[in-house]
Amino acid sequence: MNAPSEGLRSIDVSVPHPARRYDFWLGGKDNFEVDRASGLAVMQRWPGIVTAVRENRLFLGRAVRYAAAERGVCQFLDIGTGLPTVQNTHEVAQRIAPASRIVYVDNDPLVLAHARALLTSVPEGETAYLDADLRDPGQILDRAAQTLNFAQPVALMLVAVLHFLPDLHQARSIVRRLSDVLAPGSLLVLSHGSYDLVPAENARLLTKSPYPGSGDFFPRTREQIGGFFQGWDPAQPRNDRAGRAGPDQPVGSAPARGRQTRCCPIRATSRCGAASPSSWTRPGRRRWLMAEPTPLPDVTLERSNLGGFMVLWRDEPIGWIHENGDRWNAYLRAEPPRPGVELGRFPKADAVRKIATTAGWPGVQQ
Asked: Which domains does the chain have, with CATH numbers?
């Protein structure tokens, strides 16, 4: 276990910080009045932010489980870690593969103050924390190499962090720099804020005038976000609900313990993990995972193996949308290849809302 060696910098409580605001939305206690004021200002303009943040946290857990259990990836570079909460990356990974190694990266002094909570590795594995800035990927890679073996597959975690970089070109350059050192079989796990699925009135309220913290967030379109995945192939997790949070399961909590994946020594030349060869990426290719939350309470999208997206309410399928020109076909209670009841063609956000309102799920207004 590596302890943080950097001295604790002073904590500025005069301006909101994204990690502390995120902690507030998750119901944490490691935030200040300025962070709560910023969080409430966003919630007043778009109440769905709390659902989106919690779904994003669930996505992180699913992605880590997928990497460790289905891909046999036992190394994780988690950049933009944020404040510790339940079921952090190393806890999820090491429950499946105890020999997993995790490097956390963040530059918030409050996160650094709590870093020891992120360094509770099981004896077989290792965790480390780097006080470093995403805008200096070279330093991150050099220091992460003390814990990770970049000759072996690594899951690069960029979950809800790139939207704090104002320059799209810089953000893409950073992703390329980090990706270029990764071995075949590696994974890119990325989520990013977007107004594409936010109702037009809420998006207008979020952008028409400044409020505390509004200047540190830079949402992007689906097309812009897609550019981060250049050089990667999409991963397709198997379509089952095992290991996914149930409707009454707290955000970030773990399902019952399943089978463990045995990791080989990270420094060895063989691949890490006990996954079958068919579950690995093709030689020389890497894969990416992408979450797509929606502004509707408890409603999320999951990419379908057969194209389009499953529409889920609390992780249960209620419909399916499929792109058709500039519109999306909406199908109620459908799971491809079964078409279900066709509801019509709509813009994407409206297609999701049509399925949810027709299904009559609570929390979604007509």
From this structure: 64-192+219-293 (3.40.50.150), 299-359 (no CATH)
